[in-house]
């Protein structure tokens, strides 16, 4: 068999699509128009509330704009000023710390609970709803206010510690701990990734588990050699989403620190500083520049995830 | 956000619970104002909203001008206002934070009210000291609708339990430190005599500076004190902190709003700056009282009379004449003054006070008598009135808060914190020009 004929078999003959008659093209165009018509509500939203404001904020980021008078063009000055602004650098430090601690914590909690719930519980629906509840409340102000009360000086945590004769710290007021109350709050709201993991776990092929059981694999081996690799697309999906969410966290920091990012800027998350600059100091141009840098950073993180995904994410073929 | 909210609420005048009701804005009449109507926006608590609306009814009866009332809590008030200014559609008349008037005036978005004075707005009925509250570079951009002072608020019940005499009106900073120390000892572990007020610009640092013949800002909008002054100020508080007379910095996280978490209300401290009776007294069973901020060794109080909140007319107001008439109603109409009583702070004129005196409650009376006492003492000080807070004020205030807390948490030495403050505050004041 010649080399030539082999390829001929592998590659089915490709027929060039014939140029459609003009009449058909017009018809297709009409078809498309109807489609766009149905899409219009979404498209209008996309342009009016996302794309146009984004482009405008890109323009604003190149201006000095105090909201009261017309923006003045200053080129890239806002961007160059960013990196000599100590509070800005502090906000980056705080945000990165928040992202690299809260995301793994949240995903670990989500996975743990999902695996625990996936063992044929009777009242699964009830438990699932219960664990999802904190996420329903989500980034709401009420939860943040409650958190502030729980960790305040005379709050629930310190009253509990007091039972054992331990004098608890001032969790919200002490710059060493304030940040960790935010991380804990994020970890507690693991409902959404948990649901995704749970859905993923339900679809794992049982034959692998049966084979492992026959081979006498222990519970941990099964988890790390079978469950986790098979679940890696879910882990990847959750990781990307939660990282983006974490970078954009605003409400808890705003409420818990009374809108100031304190004590001594220890909870000054990126978006909180952006808000303070834009609306508090009325430097909307500067704040817009901050928003675009954040956009770029989130894009970069996501790109790195996708690049690294080839090495650790297994898609069932 | 906290655009000088605390400083503002610290006024002894009963700016009753102005931020508490952070509810949404009332529906906007998008039709705009014709000649016989007017949009008026303010922030306030429930009491003020009701009182203003009563006054507006009186206005409509007298002038035939309909007023579209738009009100909300302080939170978000300026965000929404700024957005409207940015869109070129501000209200015809609005309530303004005294500390921010120069920021807005510098952008040229406020009407110079001089042409309405004295023909429409009878400014001369106000106390002389508050007439200039809304003046920037000699032009009047806002008219005060109330007046007030920043007192020391103390928990009288704790003083009685500790058998320590309450501070006399003649006390000095040395007395303050001594009394705070005695209280700390008497109150027991984890409790402290006084709030760490090193971060409080208008309630503590300003009177202290004025007692020494200086001030926070000068008329040119620059800092009116030196690095040595600030270093001495931080050192004063550092000494008290190390002696255990004032609260540790961890407690400062809940001092920005009048809630049960405030250490004065939770019983962790016995004295605080920045708050008045009107906001705090309803939150506790304890008896609270106010006293003038400690005096300098020369006996001066250094108090600066505040205009409370101002009323301003945007340049783009569609009905400035009617807006000016409404301002005058707030200032000089006896019927309206009676309708609003103390909900807008202590009325800024003796005429208003005379009209109100027969109907005041006990705590209102205490606020009024205290305000009159302080007004007399301010006159005795013989100091020039404090210049209006300059553009960039809000960021300069944040810079003091940051520097003071760096020292309090032991993260920075006093000279480093002073240097940081001067760098950040000067940048803020210069950048706002």
From TrEMBL, chain A:
Its main location: membrane. Pfam families: BPD_transp_1. InterPro entries: ABC_transporter_permease, MetI-like, MetI-like_sf. It is a multi-pass membrane protein. The keyword Transferase does not apply. Residues 1-26 are annotated as: Disordered. The keyword Nucleotide-binding does not apply. The chain crosses the membrane at residues 33-59, 96-117, 129-147, 177-201, 222-241, 253-276, 288-307. GO terms for biological process: transmembrane transport. It comes from the Bacteria. Residues 92-305 form the ABC transmembrane type-1 domain. This is Carbohydrate ABC transporter membrane protein 1 (CUT1 family). It comes from Lentzea atacamensis.
UniProtKB/TrEMBL annotation, chain B:
It comes from the Bacteria. Pfam families: SBP_bac_8. Coiled coil: none annotated. Keywords: Signal. CDD domains: PBP2_TMBP_like (cd13585). InterPro entries: Bact_solute-bd_prot1 (IPR050490), SBP (IPR006059), TAT_signal (IPR006311). Residues 1-26 form the signal peptide. SUPFAM superfamilies: Periplasmic binding protein-like II. The keyword Phosphoprotein does not apply. This is Carbohydrate ABC transporter substrate-binding protein (CUT1 family). It comes from Lentzea atacamensis.
